[in-house]
Amino acid sequence: MDFEQLARIEDELTRIQKTYEIFDEDTRLSASPAARVEFLTTVRYIERYLRPGARLLDVGAGAGAYSLYFARRGYRVSALELAQANLRAFRAKLTPQDAIELIEGNAVDLGRWPDASFDGVLLLGPLYHLHSEADRQRCIAEARRVCKPGGALFFAFISNDMVHLTEFCYRPDYFTKGSYDKETFRLEDFPFVFHTVEGCRAMLRKGGVKILHEVAADGASELLADKINALPPEDYAQYLRYHAYICEKPEFLGMSNHLLFVGEN
After folding, report:
1. How does strand 118-123 pair with strand 194-195?
2. What is the pLDDT of residues 92-102, one digit of tens each?
3. Number of domains present in the structure of the chain
4. Which of 54, 96, 175, 191 falls 20 to 30 Å from 69 in CA-CA distance?
5. Chain mean position to CA 177
6. Under the phi-then-psi rule, with left for phi > 0, alpha for psi from -120 to 50, and beta for the rest, what region is 258?
7. What does each C-alpha distance from 128 to 2, 85, 95, 240 come to in angstroms?
8. What is the pTM of this model?
């Protein structure tokens, strides 16, 4: 499977399945210190609102990075994932001590769980893939339905505006030959769906989410990966503190490959 073959797949669910035969979600958040910036930032915000013992639903759980982290720290975790490649990677890491309810399923249908079942809901991947506004709103509505009133909601997006610089680092001819509108700089929504900061805000507000935080989850970590990965532990720890200091500043929000929005139900 390559990108040309992937682009010819019209069925959205099949395309999502095949996408993760190309992209290795299993190591994406752990491959290096730079890669871990997004994970560590997201964990910090989740732990700010949820404590061990909380019931947590990880929708679009990928290869299980967040589910396993929180389950092993005393949270009661249920996880939902669609892609078979991710499910295989997730199951391979489970131990008999990991009390995680792992379900194969679609983020737009959480019908197996009753209303107000969870203290917090993670949507850290589904909105990368849903092309229609109706499906995105259904996904948000389902997350809100199964989350308790006053509970915490966590949404991840891929930033339209930073991807240009990231692609430019790998492709010197990107600005003339890249797949984006050369006037508006709107990316082609392939193989993921891309969003601006304002687009994320509008989507969540339309879904009735009260936005508490808007976060540049990984900032410039991919662009600076070689330098970050070469840092000794003390310097890396200080870099993470710097990232925490700037990641909610409005002037830095769009300059991040991944955006994290924290909401209250």
Report:
1. unpaired
2. 999 999 999 99
3. 1
4. 191
5. 27
6. beta
7. 19, 17, 29, 25
8. 0.96
